[in-house]
Write a structure and sequence with these properties.
Number of strands: 0
Number of helices: 9
Helix content: over 70%
Strand content: under 5%
Order of helices and strands: HHHHHHHHH
Mean pLDDT: 84
Distance between the termini: 65 Å
Radius of gyration: 19 Å
C-alpha cells in the first residue's frame, strides 16, 4: 500500500516544459532549479521529490524528447532514411546551437546525462540500422556496407555542420546526404 497522494502528471509536464525553456534560454550550465520551479509554479521541494539533481531533471527531459520523436519505417527504405535525416536536420535547426553544444558537453562531463543521451540515440540507431539492413535486402544499399556505419555517415554530417561549419541544415542537404551515401535513385 502506497502512502500519500499519487504524483500529479500535469505538474511533471509543467516542470519538464519549464526545464526545456530554461535550457533553451541558458543552456545546461545556466539551468537553474529555482527558475524551473518558479516557471512551473511549484515549490522547489516538489521538483526535488521527482528529480534529485539538475542532471536527473535533464535526463527526464531527454527521455521525454525521445518519446516525442517516433520513427515508423515504411516499405520504402530510401524514403525512410531521407525522412529521418530531414527530421533530424529540422529538429537541430529549430534548436539553439548553443543548447546542442551544451548538452553534448554535459553528456561528456556528467555520466547520467551521457547515459541518457546515448540511450536516446541507441534506440533510434537500432531502428535506423534495421531500415538500412532492409535496404540491403532490397538492393538499395550494397552488401559490403555496415548498416551501423552508414547510419553514422548520414547523421554525423548534420552535427558537423551544426557545431563546426555553421552551414544550414536544409531539406536539400538532407536529401543530398542520402543520395551521397546510397547513390542516386535508379529510374524505372
Amino acid at each position: 500500500m502506497s502512502r500519500g497522494r499519487p504524483r500529479d502528471t500535469a505538474i511533471e509536464g509543467r516542470l519538464l516544459a519549464a526545464a526545456a525553456e530554461e535550457l533553451r534560454n541558458g543552456g545546461y550550465d545556466g539551468l537553474s532549479i529555482d527558475r524551473v520551479a518558479e516557471r512551473a509554479g511549484v515549490a522547489k521541494t516538489t521538483l526535488y521529490r521527482r528529480w534529485a539533481s539538475k542532471a536527473e531533471l535533464v535526463v527526464a527531459l531527454i527521455t521525454t524528447m525521445r518519446e516525442e520523436v517516433p520513427f515508423e519505417p515504411s516499405d520504402d527504405p530510401r524514403a525512410d532514411l531521407t525522412r529521418l535525416v530531414s527530421t533530424i536536420a529540422a529538429g537541430l535547426s529549430s534548436t539553439p546551437t548553443s543548447l546542442i553544444a551544451d548538452l553534448a558537453a554535459a553528456a561528456a562531463r556528467d555520466p547520467r546525462v551521457g547515459e541518457s543521451v546515448r540511450a536516446l540515440w541507441s534506440e533510434r540507431h537500432r531502428a535506423v540500422t534495421a531500415v538500412v539492413a532492409k535496404a540491403q535486402q532490397a538492393g538499395v544499399v550494397l552488401d559490403h556496407v555496415a548498416p551501423a556505419v552508414l547510419v553514422d555517415q548520414l547523421v554525423g554530417p548534420l552535427y558537423y555542420r551544426l557545431l563546426v561549419t555553421g552551414e544550414p541544415l536544409t531539406p536539400e542537404y538532407a536529401r543530398t546526404l542520402v543520395v551521397s551515401v546510397l547513390g542516386p535513385e535508379e529510374s524505372p
